[in-house]
Every structure is written in structure tokens, then in C-alpha cells.
Design brief:
CATH topology of the largest domain: Alpha-D-Glucose-1,6-Bisphosphate, Chain A, domain 4
Radius of gyration: 31 Å
Number of domains: 3
Helix content: 40-55%
Structural class: alpha+beta
CATH architecture of the largest domain: 2-Layer Sandwich
Distance between the termini: 80 Å
CATH superfamily of the largest domain: START domain
Strand content: 5-15%
CATH class of the largest domain: Alpha Beta
Shape: elongated
Number of strands: 9
């Protein structure tokens, strides 16, 4: 009953705001334009109010909620505005003045309520209706909150391979894997698992901003299954409070839950849900309006970032020139190469092959690439997938003119040059790299691509 009365209060507030829109408009515009503005503003006002009501106080389904709000508006217009303020019921003869806004208010209230309480658009959340309705860890921490924003992604890696990326999150840690310029101070999020960040425990705080100690408190974690983070801030000043601290007069509490579920073929279904509680309640309205759309964008980017990293070469334990054991094995293969070794394909000699590989490595290390044909520049980014795939290189593939070795080369000199370039690559910063042909590459892609290319050419000579 209390929540139904709250709905009536929300409807009266919406009706009053619509009336204020007309009152202000009459002072500034001709009446015809005022009615158009009102017809646009009324469904927007009621849509926002209905969204907030459904999110925090809903007791009726979307259709009855729309009927109640429309009924309040019609009764107030017919029982107060027409007989006492306008002294005429002529307003009900104008479609743009009454009937069109009435219809739009009903549709807006129903749509907003259905957005929260109904299944919602799967294309936006990438979570099914059943996933959005089901309880998740972290829900009991804010029992007063209805619903929440639930997102999902399927990752081609088992939960044990996804979990290390979750527990190392946070600014001044591994980052948030989202839009780094917005949530990580412009620093690229880590593209490798950081061993020293794997000991996250209950009560730890994952910083939300660079150089800032406050952030998200770890409220619950179960390895490879669940991570629940919480934020509890007091207004004004945004002073952070422990999750179990007494409630001040003005505050914001939010949970951020990550649930991992194993699925077929060693895959993981990752569901993420955020829920928030604000006092006073109008702070929640502002937060929804300002942060709601931004959260959808940032959360989707984070899920895709987690997916890419968990499926990456290093996470799946593929070879990399950033791995010391792989580097030692490569050096042994180079040392085993003989000057007169016979090529299994292609026309290069062993010395020319080593010169070719060293030249490729030097470009990865930052050497400027020479004049590149327009066609290669156009298709290069499109071929990145081939560069970092698991499929073997096609023999005698075309290459950049700078990498073609046609002149005789000294075997000893080129061996020393290649060994030096391999060591330089292994010691280079393990960070994102923009290749002049293939575009943006993560550290995992860089380490895997350079190893894969070198492995292809060493195999060319049987070592």
C-alpha cells in the first residue's frame, strides 16, 4: 500500500511539472507553441519519474502503473484545471492540448516501467531476459533496490583463465579494461596477468581513480566463481565509508557483482550486475540520468576487454618473445643454424633469412618503416587477424619491400644482429604497440606475432 501511495505522489509530481511547463511557456511563447512543447515535455517528465519509481519502489506491473499515472493526470485536469483554473472544458476539445499528451504519457510510463521490470533489450545488455531476472551474488547486500543493470559476455576460456584478470582490476593496479582515458587516467590497462596482484582478499579496496585510495571494497569473493565489489560514499564530499558503517543522512551505496559460470567447450559465461541505493532519493534520479548511459558504454567495453585478454595468447599459454624460456629456446635454434643449411622453401639463404627477421624485429622496436605501397597500408589492419592467428604462415607469402633480402649477407654478422634483436624485443616494454602496417597491437599479440614469424623462418631451414 505504501508503494502504491508513492506512485500516486510520483504521478502528482509529474502532473505539477507539466503544469509548470505550460505556465512558464505562456510567458515566453505563443499558445500554439506552448502546447507543442508541453506535448514533448510531458512524456519525458513522466518517463523519467516512472523509470526511477520502477527501479526503486515498484509495486505494480508496467500496464497498471501507466493506468494509474494517466488516471491521476486526467482527474487533476478534469477536476481542478478545467473548472477552476481555465473555467472551461474547452481544453478537452484540443488533441494537441490534452489527448495526445495523455496518450504519450501512458506510453512513456509503460515503456519506462517495462524497461526496468520487463526483459529489456538483449542487444543492449547482451544478457538474456532470464539472466536479468535471476538473482546474483551481491543482490542481498541491497535488498531495498529493485532490478539493476545486468550485462553479459561469453568468453572462449574456462573460468580459471578469466578469474586472474578480475582480481587484479583497479586503478594503479591492472586498470579496468575499459576506456582507459576515462577511468584509468589514460594509462593502458594491463594485457598480462600480474602475479603480485593475485592475492586480492575481503576488505581490500580497488582504487577507482589514479592516486586515489578510495574505490570499490571487496565484499565477497569465491575463486573462479564470484567477485562482488561495493562502494559506500557520504554526501557531501564523497568521503568513503566501510560497507558495514552506520548510514549517514545522505549517502550512496552501490554493488558491482561479477559472476562466472562454466559452460560447454571450456567456455565461461560472465554476468555483471550493478545496483545502487541513494539517499535522498532524488540523487538517484540525477545519477541515473547522468551515469546510466555512460555505464552501459563503459561496462560493455570492459566486458569486451576481459574477453580479449582471457582469450589472448599469453592467457592461453602460447609462445611469446616476452617469455624467457621461449627466448632461450629460440636462441638455441638460431645457434644451431648452419651457413650452408638448405631451405625447405623460398629463395633466401640462412644469412638473408636472419637479416630479414632482424629487420622485421627492428620495426617492432620502433624503427621507421620505409615507403609503404598504398595497397599494403589499406589492407594491413584487415590482415592483423592473420598475423596473430594460430594458422601456420603460408609459404612464400608476399612481404614489404623493406623486408626483401636479395643481396648476399654475411652469416656471422646477421646471426649476431638477429640474436641482439631477439634480446631487445624480449626486454622491450610489455605494452600496447601501434604497428605501422597492422595498427594497434596488445603486448600479447606483439609477443606472439614476433615469435610466430621467427618460428616460421627457422622452420624454413629445419631448425
Amino acid at each position: 500500500m505504501r508503494r502504491t501511495l508513492l506512485l500516486l505522489v510520483f504521478a502528482l509530481v509529474g502532473w505539477a511539472l507539466c503544469g509548470a511547463t505550460i505556465g512558464v511557456g505562456r510567458q515566453l511563447l505563443p499558445m500554439e507553441q506552448v502546447l507543442v512543447v508541453h506535448a514533448i515535455a510531458a512524456p519525458l517528465i513522466f518517463g523519467v519519474l516512472a523509470y526511477f519509481h520502477a527501479r526503486h519502489f515498484a509495486s505494480l506491473r508496467p500496464l497498471p502503473t501507466g493506468v494509474v499515472c494517466l488516471g491521476v493526470v486526467v482527474l487533476m485536469d478534469a477536476g481542478l484545471v478545467a473548472p477552476f483554473l481555465e473555467n472551461s472544458f474547452a481544453m478537452f476539445r484540443s488533441p494537441i492540448g490534452t489527448w495526445i499528451p495523455f496518450a504519450l504519457i501512458f506510453v512513456s510510463v509503460w515503456a519506462s516501467s517495462h524497461w526496468v521490470m520487463g526483459p529489456g533489450p538483449e542487444w543492449l545488455w547482451h544478457a538474456t531476459a532470464a539472466e536479468r531476472r535471476r538473482p546474483l551474488p551481491g543482490d542481498p547486500l541491497l535488498p531495498q533496490v529493485k532490478g539493476g543493470a545486468t550485462h553479459g559476455v561469453t568468453i572462449d576460456a574456462p573460468p580459471d583463465s578469466v578469474w586472474p584478470w578480475l582480481v587484479q582490476m583497479g586503478c594503479d593496479r591492472a586498470g579496468w579494461y575499459s576506456h582507459d582515458r576515462l577511468d584509468n587516467g589514460g594509462r593502458p590497462s594491463a594485457d598480462r596477468i600480474v602475479p603480485e596482484l593475485q592475492n586480492t582478499k575481503l576488505g581490500d579496496v580497488l582504487p577507482s581513480r589514479p592516486g586515489h585510495r578510495g574505490g570499490f571494497e571487496v565484499l565477497h569473493l569465491e575463486a573462479s566463481k564470484t567477485l562482488v565489489l561495493g562502494a559506500y560514499f557520504q554526501f557531501p564530499g564523497l568521503a568513503q565509508l566501510p560497507w558495514d558503517a552506520p548510514r549517514p543522512l545522505r549517502f550512496m551505496r552501490a554493488t558491482w557483482a561479477f559472476a562466472l559460470e562454466a559452460s560447454e567447450k571450456a567456455r565461461t559465461r560472465l554476468l555483471v550486475r550493478t545496483r545502487g541505493l541513494y539517499r535522498p532519493a532524488w540523487l538517484g534520479v540525477l545519477a541515473e540520468l547522468v551515469m546510466g548511459p555512460a555505464h552501459v558504454i563503459m561496462q560493455r567495453r570492459q566486458l569486451l576487454g576481459l574477453k580479449a585478454r582471457a582469450e589472448s595468447r599469453m592467457a592461453m599459454k602460447r609462445e611469446s618473445l616476452f617469455d624467457s624460456e621461449t627466448v632461450r629456446a629460440v636462441e638455441e635454434r638460431i645457434e644451431a643454424l648452419k651457413p650452408g643449411a638448405e631451405s625447405l622453401w623460398g629463395r633466401m639463404s640462412p644469412a638473408q633469412m636472419m637479416a630479414h627477421c632482424a629487420e622485421v624485429h627492428e620495426v617492432w622496436l620502433g624503427k621507421k618503416l620505409g615507403r609503404t605501397p598504398l595497397l599494403i597500408r589499406m589492407v594491413g589492419p584487415l590482415l592483423k587477424g592473420l598475423l596473430v592467428s594460430d594458422k601456420p604462415y603460408r609459404r612464400n607469402s608476399p612481404t614489404h619491400p623493406q623486408y626483401r633480402m636479395t643481396n648476399p649477407r654475411d652469416f656471422t654478422t646477421e646471426k649476431a644482429r638477429l640474436l641482439a634483436s631477439v634480446r631487445a624485443l624480449s626486454e622491450s616494454p610489455r605494452e600496447e604497440f601501434r604497428h605501422p602496417i597492422f595498427g594497434r597491437m596488445t603486448a600479447e599479440e606483439k609477443g606472439w606475432a614476433t615469435y610466430r614469424h621467427l618460428d616460421h623462418h627457422l622452420s624454413q631451414f629445419g631448425v
